[in-house]
Amino acid sequence: MSEPLVRFIDVRKSYDGKADAVRALNLEVANGEFLTLLGPSGSGKTTTLTMLAGFEQPTAGRIFVGADDITHVPVEKRGIGMVFQNYALFPNMTVGENIGFPLKVRRMAGAEIASKVTRALAMVRLEGLADRKPQQLSGGQQQRVAVARALVFEPRLVLLDEPLGALDRQLREQMQYELKHLHERLGVTMVYVTHDQVEAMTMSDRVAVFSAGQLRQVAAPRRLYEEPDSLFVARFLGESNILPGTVRERRDGQCGVVLNGGQTVVATAVGTSEKVNLAVRPEKIALGSAAAGCINHFPAKVVEVSFLGDQLRVRLEALGQEDFIVKFANAPGHAALEPGGAIEIGWRAEDCRALGE
Amino acid sequence: MLSANRQEASRHGAYWLIVLPALLMLALLYFVPLGNVLLTSVTDPKPGLQNYGLLFTSTSVQKALVTTVRIAAITTFFALLLGYVVAYAMRAASTRTQRFMLVGVLLPFWISVLVRSFAWIALLGTQGPLNSALVAWGLVDEPVALVRNETGVLIGMVHIMVPYAVLTLYANMRGIDVGLVAAARSLGASRFQAFRMVFLPLTVPGLIGAGTLVFILSLGFYVTPALLGGGKVLMIAEYVAVQINDTLRWGLGTMLAATLMIAVLGCLWALSRVIDVKRLFGA
Ligand SMILES: Nc1ncnc2c1ncn2[C@@H]1O[C@H](COP(=O)(O)OP(=O)(O)O)[C@@H](O)[C@H]1O
Ligand SMILES: [Mg+2]
After folding, report:
1. Strands (E), A212-341
2. The whole model's pTM is what?
3. Do A257 and A213 have their domain in common?
4. How far apart are CA A120 and CA A148, in angstroms?
5. Mean pLDDT for chain A?
6. Domain termination site, one of A226, A257, A292
7. What digits encode the pLDDT tens for the residues B156-212?
8. Which chain B residues touch A86 with a CB distance below 8 Å?
9. Between chains, do B177 and A92 touch, taking CB under 8 Å as contact?
């Protein structure tokens, strides 16, 4: 990661003077990075993006782009490209005029605008559609026009607020790929907002997880999934088995945790809290003979087996819980499981994180 | 399938039966007199188109026509200008303020045109508060003639027409996504550029619609020009009234009424060619 392009420093935003839509935000976006803001609806993602775009002013704190403090710079002076969820294409202009708009307001010469628009259209594979009106295009095509329009004036930074939210699944996946490809080819920094965790995981260099106006964790997708440092992140990204307990001892980054049912589990220590929730991913759990080799292993009873095609999902009764989930690949020679049968489950300390509240 | 069709048909039948009395009333009270007017215009005093010929030969008819079109056009211009500003401010205001402003715009509808005309005479007259203030502040040496002339007619008519312009423009502006202006700004447009290149073009249908509506309504004005013009500003409607009430030239009067109606229909037809009228009024 190179030096940061964007820095949020102690940024807080309150619309009504009472509740904070965003608070205590410290976040850096590296030059050339694809950073995704991920979180449930109302968690402050759009607010963060609109402060960066300049539509809203932070209530407190500063925002830097490069060496410049842009906290109070007006929208049109920021030179940041933006793609809106509803595309926001100008219905009174053709596709070509839409894409040429940022160049026209910069008083570029007509011939130069024309050649840049042609290139931008080719970039998003919409050659020959310059003279159509946006209303005559499909949703996916309109989205491409919006992307071309945000990129045509060669901004260093492009913001995208749930740009694929209105598209159907297949088109979404294709557009995800194309956006990612554009990002790599142009080397432009992108800040992307979504509430779709799969989208965030597949596209991003790093993901920033928000909840209730607070940035919870920023990390590369894999790291975020494997090493969540809060219960919220562990639950929000993928699935986790959660076991509440109390820390008894800590040693070498690990800790011994006594569960509410009395069993002891060795886990990876995160933070310093006494009361913890252990989080174990369903696919990290070994079954049968493989479980015996793990530092944590317990007896369990099969309740339900669901066949999902490429994988199997098993619901177990274990450690006093009735919905302990285990997932494993539908590979040759996997254990045969019947509801009601007894089985051993186990996991490593590395795959189990003791998370504070 | 078949019985469903028959049911459908009988439902249509019942529907027509309900509407029929209203249609008959409309025909009787509207189309019969209208037909009469058209008929009179080509039969009185003797059959033929000589009444319509007056459009090309009579200077007094032509003068009334020119005055009418000029006043209607100037009224339309100012009503659109003021209406645009009010509608724009309304759209930008909070929901609460919007509601207050809407009531403010609608309020004049509940006051008769007659009352409003007299109010203007009182306000704008040589002894009125406006002239008194102008003289008192030394802005003018003697009272300005603001009423009993064309200026007075225009002031009164613009006042009556602004709400129509506001309502039409407001309906149109509300249909414009605010996000578009925001998008324009984020792409580098100044406030003014965003307005001129994005917002203004999107309100053109509203301007055309409001303009046509105000122009058509202005063509037929009677009370306001009669009162505020002080008898010096003769518009078509008053001219027609004079022919029918005083000089008893029914043929000339009905011919002018018919001409006015044809002009209005022509305007509406032209409007329907350029924009979707139903969408304009939010239907
Ligand atoms: N323009 C606004 N005025 C008042 N409150 C707002 C406005 N925009 C967002 N909020 C509030 O701020 C919080 C965060 O919203 P937002 O940033 O839009 O979340 P997200 O994009 O993650 O769904 C929400 O509680 C929302 O109701
Ligand atoms: Mg949002």
Report:
1. 214-219, 241-251, 254-259, 264-269, 275-280, 286-287, 296-307, 311-318, 321-329
2. 0.82
3. no
4. 6
5. 92
6. A226
7. 999 999 999 999 999 999 999 989 999 999 999 999 999 999 999 999 999 999 999
8. 177, 179
9. no
- CA–CA separation, B131 and A251 (whole Å): 93
Residue-by-residue DSSP string for chain B: -HHHHHHHHHHHHHHHHHHHHHHHHHIIIIIHHHHHHHHHHHHSSSSSSHHHHHHHH-HHHHHHHHHHHHHHHHHHHHHHHHHHHHHHHHHHS-HHHHHHHHHHHHGGGGS-HHHHHHHHHHHHSTTSHHHHHHHHTTS-SS----SSSHHHHHHHHHHHHHHHHHHHHHHHHHTS-HHHHHHHHHTT--HHHHIIIIIHHHTHHHHHHHHHHHHHHHHT--HHHHHHTTTS---HHHHHHHHHHTS--HHHHHHHHHHHHHHHHHHHHHHHHHS-HHHHTT-
Check residues A272 and B104 and name the one with the higher pLDDT: B104
Confidence check: pLDDT of A275 > 70: yes
The answer to whether residue A20 scores a pLDDT higher than 90 is: yes
**Are the CB atoms for B280 and B172 separated by under 8 Å?**
yes
The upper half-sphere exposure of residue B254, i.e. CA atoms within 13 Å in the direction of its Cβ, equals 19
- Say if ligand 1 is within 6 A of residue A21 CB: yes
For A248, the domain range is 240-356
How is domain B67-280 classified at the CATH fold level? MetI-like fold (1.10.3720)
Residue nearest to atom 16 of ligand 1 (CA): A44
Ligand 1 within 6 A of CB of A55: no
Nearest to B186 among A82, A90, A91 (CB): A82
Percent of chain A past pLDDT 90, that is, above it, reads 74
Is A299 a member of any domain?
A: yes
- Residue A275: what are its φ and ψ, rounded to 5°? -80, 125
Q: Which of B188, B190, B198 shows the shortest C-beta gap to A90? A: B198
Alpha carbon of B89 to those of A348, B95, B166, B192, B227: distances in Å?
A: 65, 12, 10, 15, 32
Interface of B with A in 159-188 (CB under 8 A): 177, 179-180, 182-188
The CATH number that applies at residue A171 is 3.40.50.300
Q: Which ligand is nearest to the CA of A37?
A: 1
**Are A20 and A127 contained in the same domain?**
yes
A349 shares a domain with A296: yes
B189 CB neighbours in chain A (<8 A) are 76, 101, 105
Ligand number nearest to the C-alpha of A21: 1
Phi, psi of A333 (to 5 degrees): 80, 15
Q: How far is A163 from chain B (nearest CA, A)?
A: 14
What are the structure tokens assigned to B258, written together?
Answer: 């018919």
> Which protein residue has the closest C-alpha to ligand 1 atom 8?
A47
Nearest in space to B180 (alpha carbons), one of B197, B163, B204:
B197
Q: What is the ipTM of this complex?
A: 0.81
Please tell me whether residues A112 and A218 are part of one structural domain: yes
Chain A nearest-CA distance from B254, in A, is 44
Provide the pLDDT for residue A234: 93
**Given an 8 Å threshold on Cβ–Cβ distance, is B179 in contact with A80?**
no
Domain annotation covers residue A245: yes
Q: Is the pLDDT of residue A162 over 70?
A: yes
Q: In this structure, are A272 and A210 located in the same domain? A: no
User: pLDDT tens digits for A306-347?
Assistant: 988 888 899 999 888 889 999 988 888 766 788 888 889 999
**Which of A53, A88, A104 is closest, CB to CB, to B179?**
A88
A210 and A249, same structural domain? no
